[in-house]
Amino acid sequence: MKIGRRKFVGTASAIVAGIARSPVAQARSSTIGPGTSSDLERQEPAASSAKPAPVPTWQAKVERLFKAPDLHPNALEAAADGLWIGDQVSERVFKIDWHTGKVLYELQTESHNTSGIAVGGGYLWVNANGGVSGRRPPRSTDKPFGEIIQADLKTGKTVKAFDPPWGGVHGNVYVEQTQTLWTVALNISALAELDPKDNLRILRIIPVKGDRPHGIDWDHGAIWCLFAGDRLIQKLDPDTGKVRPHGSGPRQRARHGLQIQDGGDMIPIAMSRVTLVRAGMTVLMLIVSALIAHPVFSQSDDLDVLKVIPENYKLVFENPFVRVIEAHVPPGTVEPPHRHMRGVSVCMTEYTVESRTLPDGEWVRSERKLGTVYWSESSLHQLRNVGKTTSHTVRIELKY
Predict the structure, then answer these.
(1) 165-199 pLDDT, tens per residue?
(2) Fewer CB within 10 Å: N-end or C-end of the chain?
(3) Is 18 helix (H, G, I), strand (E, B) or coil?
(4) Domain 305-398, CATH 2.60.120.10 — does that match?
(5) CA 278 to centroid of chain Cα atoms
(6) Phi, psi of 24 (to 5 degrees)
(7) What are phi and psi of 281, to 5 degrees?
(8) Which region, left, alpha or beta, applies to residue 13 given φ > 0 means left and ψ of -120 to 50 means alpha?
(9) Is the pLDDT at 28 greater than 90, yes or no?
(10) Where does the pLDDT of residue 278 fall: very low under 50, low under 70, confident under 90, or very high at 90 and above?
């Protein structure tokens, strides 16, 4: 009997919720594609209702280090020769120097909403969570559902894409000792161990308890999981999913990626949208939500629109929180590459423009009407006025 995605999610959700006591045995013979359901549906007696001892927690000190190489970092991979960072909008993957943040290597992947990256077995493994939410022009490789992408380490091109039965995916990690790939099974609140040599056959599934499991990593026989919604990190038993004593934290703000550096004697790292920071604990965390205390854009950027095209863009108001820019772009103008802060634009005239996100986005036409209001994220892009009227726009940009 074959099992479809809906039945898999329902059965696996029941398992990780505690109906089955041994998710390892029950997932052992399943595959990531359609397969048999007998193992997944087998139930065992419920676990004891005795309350476990509370797990110790602590709050870490965070230290900013350097800027990330792209605007929307959302995935991490720690390696001896550098830290890998995946961007969820450009879908680019960078390897940077641990100490300086200098980009050592860069790949353009065919991912969509990159949410996890791992290096192992001679490949780059990219967890693509499906959809890009209008943050960039669509690409032919975009999918509306989650995929695990096996990519070439030299070119970033997709070798094979796997459609997991649970749907959404977040963080992942390749474990060298076992030659297996672990991934967040988002829709069933679980972590899954997969066999890369057998079409990502599911070896085991363990439950996790927390809001939005995201980044994961492996260290000394334990798996660490970061919960973005709870802003907590837990050290888990890979067989049972139970929290091992080592604490949870820190709690400053939402985090997405997670990586461990140098085993038990680690320099822990965290990352905001633009800044790499060091945390006083044994894990790496990728932070993607903004706080007032940490800007997500720097006006010192040489590609800031006010520096690149001062003849078209004028600063009319500024305070510590926002800046307001008035833009006039004459017909026939092709603007050079530049950046804006994220914000809201109000169209003061009717006009027609085309824009593209760099480095490789396609030109997208927009016909704006007087009074149109729209939101746009910060991005490196170009714009050209292809209409017959000057575009007049007032843009309110957020500094944080």
Answers:
(1) 888 899 999 999 999 999 999 888 899 999 999 99
(2) N
(3) helix
(4) yes
(5) 19
(6) -65, -55
(7) -155, -175
(8) alpha
(9) no
(10) very low
Our separate counts of H helices and E strands in the chain read 4, 29
The tokens for 57 are 């927690």
Mean pLDDT score of the chain: 77
- Burial of residue 100 (CB within 10 Å: 0-12, 13-18, 19+) is exposed
Which sequence spans correspond to the domains of the chain?
5-47+56-287, 305-398
Confidence band of 45 (pLDDT split at 50, 70, 90)? very low
Place of tokens 């957020």: 398
| Residue 73 CA: distances (Å) to CA of 107, 158, 258 | 14, 20, 12
Q: Does the reported pTM lie above 0.85?
A: no
CA end-to-end span of the chain: 53
Distance CA 189, CA 278 (A): 28
Task: Tell whether the torsion through CA atoms of 239, 244, 246 and 250 is positive or negative.
Answer: positive
* 399 contacts: CB under 8 Å, gap ≥ 6: 295, 296, 297, 320, 321, 322, 323, 341
- Residues 167 and 222 sit within 8 Å (Cβ to Cβ): no
**If you ran DSSP here, which 8-state letter would residue 19 be given?**
I
Distances (CA, A) of 327 to 67, 85, 152, 176, 229: 28, 34, 42, 53, 38
State the pLDDT confidence band at 202, using cuts at 50, 70 and 90: very high
- Geometric angle at alpha carbon 53, from 47 and 59, rounded to 5°: 125
CA 88 – CA 127 distance, rounded (Å): 10
Summarised one tens digit per residue, pLDDT across range 338-380 is: 988 889 999 999 999 999 998 888 999 999 999 999 998 888 9
Residue with tokens 């990626």: 257
Taking phi over 0 as left and psi of -120 to 50 as alpha, with beta for the rest, 355 belongs to beta
DSSP state of 290: -
Residue length, the chain?
400
Encode pLDDT of 113-144 as tens digits. 999 999 999 999 999 998 877 788 889 999 99
Beta partners for 217? 224
Q: Are 77 and 64 in contact (CB under 8 A)?
A: no
